[in-house]
Specification:
The complex is a heterodimer of chains A (411) and B (298). Chain A is built from ten helices and eleven strands. Chain A is α+β, with helices and mostly antiparallel strands and 411 residues long. Chain B is α+β, with helices and mostly antiparallel strands and 298 residues long. Chain B has two domains: 214 residues, Multidrug efflux transporter AcrB transmembrane fold (Up-down Bundle), CATH 1.20.1640; 75 residues, Reverse transcriptase/Diguanylate cyclase domain (Alpha-Beta Plaits, 2-Layer Sandwich), CATH 3.30.70. Chain B is 70% helix and 11% strand. Chain B contains ten helices and six strands, in the order H-H-E-H-E-H-E-E-H-E-H-H-E-H-H-H. Chain B has a four-stranded antiparallel sheet. In chain B, strand 3 and strand 4 form a beta hairpin. The longest helix of chain B has 35 residues. Classes of the chains: A alpha+beta (411), B alpha+beta (298). Chains A and B meet through helix 4, strand 11, helix 7, helix 8 and helix 9 of A and strand 5, helix 6, helix 8, helix 9 and helix 10 of B.
Chain lengths: 411, 298
């Protein structure tokens, strides 16, 4: 008896403290919100892994992830997410960004840098006779670049790109320049020649400059692209989602409203139908809500609109255990048992059904999570699973101890 | 027991509902969203709440300018423009276009699902439905493995599965009918999720009733199966109604006050859970009685 009272008090105090923690960290450690509540861009890429040996796919995906992560980080987004999914998918989430085109360019475009020798050709091409120039690509490409950065021309103060080749690239560059002194070397970017300086002498040391008419922004983007290199596999954009910030905030407010009203309606129903025990169940429901929110925050669960819907539904479902027990109690009371015994019996007898039915919900949630086709569903399944698991605890432990603590007196 | 005695009436009611649902599905079908068909969906909302343009005028402008697209109202004052085209990177362009044709509105959300992703979503949905059904059958057979009198435990599983089909067919039919007669009710990935949750929830209800049958078979002096099932149903009746009711109340809150994205989702769940509660009270347990009778006659 004193023990159940003690437990009841401990539960209330712990719940109160957790509630206080939630309130105090409201600003400093906010809940993690998904893009649909926060606004931002969600991109789904499919990598073409058909040309890669099966055992290397994992490693290539990892490299792909790292390269794209580096590009995204250079973009200066707060808390971007880059993750691989399944065998060949890559998910990129950019919270707070709304310019999809820019994001796609940044992630997907690898500048292709080529160095070609220019030969003048005499002869007939089509109907015109005369001199034509033809490019002969050398082996030297952007692949051999170690770093790239923006420099400014000492005289004109115009931005240019300073390149440093790796050892292999430096050797290639030295060979090319040594063998072709006096000839122009065309530097082309994405198939477009941007400059063709005449080779004056052999260049050793593996450094080069690309001059052209860049804006500072263009030079920055180009340097970044060259530095982080090419993607190990080609990727194709197969899905995007762009959500405006105001829409996200609106959805968040609506979800919170729905949660508050849902909680109030369910509590009113419980109190009207079950009176005092309903009131205790409503208190257990408050404990349930606090515990859930704490788990969301503590484990950094990403909340989406579907996740919040799952949470609200789980409030309605969490009552289930209580109702099973209360109905059992009613029957036991009818059979002439004392209130305390009826309570013990009600809990004991209701447990198998509570366990079985919750397990079936958890199986559903688990399958949904594993085969979730979109972040919205994943969010739903995760929160639903957590909700059902916690509800098993609160409907048994919390409401039982609370009811036992107050029931002896009424005997 | 009223429910068991009048089981024919309850069967007939279910058969009518299922018949109408199946009829509607095959004649009018479902309206699949871009999750399954691929394409783009562009949501636009008024910039400020005091929009001067009326919804009808705004729709006219949009219809004229997005000729190959379906424009429909969405939310309080917004629209959804649905196209087969790819709009994965056109937000700036779209906003510029809107600024010139309908300056009171702006793009608030763009979803683009390529054909590859659409196919994958479909595949994954089918896989999860099959797995959930399989898991449920296994679970029921396991949970009721000890009962073999007067019908074998797999028949409990069978009755539960019939009830599950009932619970899934009705929301599908509901969406098909609503889409045909009332407005646009789209079937998307969340719809499938809702159906799976309905499966889990309905089995939950059915288990509670069957569990009581299991218990009463053990303790009851009256060994008449029909009476035992009747007793079990009436003992669990209020509980079944009340747990579904609290869940539906929470769902109504999501439907009424929640964001637009989860509104239809809540609706499927409400319909499905209502159907599920009906089936576990009036269909599942009655099927046990019917099956027991059929066995006896042989």
């Amino acid at each position: 008896m004193t023990r159940t009272r003690l437990w009841a008090i401990i539960i209330i105090i712990v719940a109160g403290l957790l509630g206080l923690y939630l309130k105090n960290t409201y600003q400093t450690k906010p809940f993690k919100l998904g893009l649909d509540l926060n606004g931002g861009i969600h991109l789904v890429y499919k990598a073409d892994t058909s040309k890669i040996a099966k055992e290397d796919v994992g490693a290539s995906m990892e490299t792909l992830k790292n390269v794209i992560e580096a590009r995204v980080n250079a973009f200066g987004v707060s808390e971007p997410i880059v993750q691989t999914e399944g065998m060949d998918k890559l998910i990129v989430e950019l919270p707070g960004i709304n310019d999809t085109q820019k994001a796609i360019d940044l992630i997907g475009k690898t500048p292709v840098l080529e160095f070609s020798l220019v030969e003048e050709m005499y002869g007939t091409v089509g109907t015109s006779t005369g001199t034509t120039t033809e490019l002969f690509p050398t082996e030297l490409t952007g692949k051999y670049i170690k770093t790239a950065r923006v420099e400014y021309d000492g005289r004109t103060n115009k931005p240019q790109i300073g390149l440093v080749f790796n050892d292999e690239g430096a050797k290639l560059f030295a060979d090319i320049t040594k063998n072709n002194i006096g000839k122009p070397l065309a530097i082309s970017l994405d198939g477009q020649v941007i400059s063709a300086p005449i080779i004056q002498a052999e260049i050793v040391g593996g450094q080069a400059q690309i001059t052209g008419s860049f804006s500072i922004q263009e030079a920055n983007d180009l340097a970044r692209g060259l530095k982080y290199g090419a993607l190990p596999v080609t990727i194709e954009l197969i899905g995007t989602q762009t959500i405006g910030a105001s829409l996200g905030i609106d959805a968040l407010h609506k979800s919170i409203n729905a949660g508050v009203y849902g909680f109030i309606i369910v509590s009113i129903f419980l109190i009207l139908w079950y009176r005092f025990r309903g009131f205790i169940a409503a208190i257990a429901l408050i404990v349930y809500t606090i515990l859930n929110l704490f788990v969301f925050k503590f484990f950094g669960i990403v909340l989406t609109s579907a996740g919040l819907a799952a949470f609200i539904i789980s409030i309605g479902m969490a009552v289930d255990g209580n109702i099973l027990i209360f109905e059992r109690m009613r029957e036991e009371l009818k059979r002439g048992k004392t209130r305390f015994d009826a309570l013990e019996e009600g809990f004991r007898r209701a447990w198998p059904s509570i366990r079985d039915s919750n397990i079936s919900s958890m199986i559903t949630a688990f399958i949904l999570y594993t085969f979730a086709a979109s972040p919205l569903i994943k969010g739903f399944a995760l929160v639903f699973f957590i909700g059902v698991a916690i509800s098993m605890f609160t409907s048994i432990t919390v409401s039982k101890n609370l009811l036992l603590a107050v029931s002896k007196k009424n005997k | 027991m009223f429910i068991v005695k009048n089981r024919i009436i309850f069967y007939i009611l279910s058969i009518i509902l299922i018949g109408v649902s199946i009829f509607s599905y095959f004649s009018w079908g479902l309206n699949y969203g871009i999750d399954f068909t691929g394409g783009s969906s562009i949501e636009i909302q008024p910039i400020s709440t005091s929009t001067v343009v009326s919804q009808i005028d705004a729709k006219k402008v949009l219809d004229q300018n997005f000729k190959d697209a379906v424009v429909r109202p969405y939310g309080e004052n917004g629209f959804i423009i649905k196209t087969k085209e790819i709009a994965n990177n056109q937000d700036v362009e779209l906003n510029n276009k809107l600024a010139s044709i309908l300056p009171t509105h702006q793009v608030s959300r763009i979803d683009f699902i390529g054909p590859t992703l659409g196919a994958e979503l479909k595949q994954k949905s089918i896989t999860s439905i099959i797995l959930v059904l399989l898991a449920i059958v296994l679970f029921i057979t396991f949970a009721f493995r000890q009962i073999s009198y007067p019908i074998p435990s797999w028949k409990y599983g069978f009755a539960a599965i019939i009830a599950l089909f009932h619970d899934v067919i009705i929301p599908i039919g509901f969406f098909s009918i609503m889409n045909h007669f009332v407005g646009i009710y789209e079937v998307d990935a969340l719809f499938i999720t809702a159906l799976l949750v309905v499966l889990g929830f309905s089995i939950h209800d059915t288990i509670v009733v069957f569990d009581r049958v299991r218990e009463n078979l053990r303790i009851s002096k009256d060994k008449n199966f029909e009476n035992i099932v009747g007793k079990s149903v009436s003992e669990t009746f209020i509980r079944s109604i009340n747990t579904s009711l609290t869940t539906i109340l929470a769902l109504v809150a999501v439907y009424v006050w929640g964001p637009d994205t989860t509104r239809n989702f809540a609706l499927v769940l409400i319909v499905g859970i209502a159907a599920g509660t009906y089936s576990s009270i009036f269909i599942g347990s009655n099927l046990l009685v019917t099956m027991a009778r059929l066995t006896k006659k042989k």
